[in-house]
Amino acid sequence: MFPSNMSKLETLGADDPTLEQLVTPIEEFPSLETLYATHAESLARTLLAAGTSVDIGRKEVEVAQLRYERGLSNNLDVVTAESNLLTAESRRLATLADSAVARLSLRAMLGTLDPRKDVK
């Protein structure tokens, strides 16, 4: 089962990685500029998607109201469309708030945050 000169405890850790293999050298981490650019791109895509959702929500409300006025649907469709629009607007505002917090956090980490100028 185990080689005669090895104990069970010695064989358990034989294939485990060393500390040097587990720790990533600092040089391999992306720079703050890269992280910020990546975050900015992600934020731009998220804001675009949120804005598109709001636009679609407005059109859904308009269509639901027209259908209701013409007797083609009931008031529940209008209320559902309005609820969906409010949800989309809420997501968009949450994204804007997350963006503001991320910018302030980055400035704080870099040591360039001036609460008198940066926080309004």
Structural descriptors:
mainly alpha; elongated; about 120 residues
How would you explain this protein's 3D organization?
- The chain has 120 residues and is an all-alpha fold.
- It has a domain at 47-108.
- It is 72% helix and 0% strand.
- It has five helices and no strands.
- It has helices spanning 8-12, 19-22, 32-69, 75-110, 115-118.
- 5% of the residues are buried.
- The model has no long low-confidence stretch (mean pLDDT 82).
The number of helical segments is 5
Which class do the helix and strand fractions yield?
A: mainly alpha
Number of DSSP strand runs = 0
Specify Rg, calculated over alpha carbons: 27 Å
Helix content: over 70%
Write down the secondary-structure element order. Answer: HHHHH
Cα shape: elongated
- End-to-end Cα distance: 70 Å
Mean pLDDT comes to 82
Largest sheet data: none
- Please state the oligomeric state of the protein chains shown: single chain
Residue stretches low in confidence (pLDDT < 50, at least 5 long) are none
Q: Estimate what percentage of residues fall within beta strands.
A: under 5%
Protein topology:
Elements (H helix, E strand, L loop, with lengths): L7 H5 L6 H4 L9 H38 L5 H36 L4 H4 L2
Helix pairs in contact: 3-4
Task: Write a brief structural summary.
It is built from 5 helices and no strands.
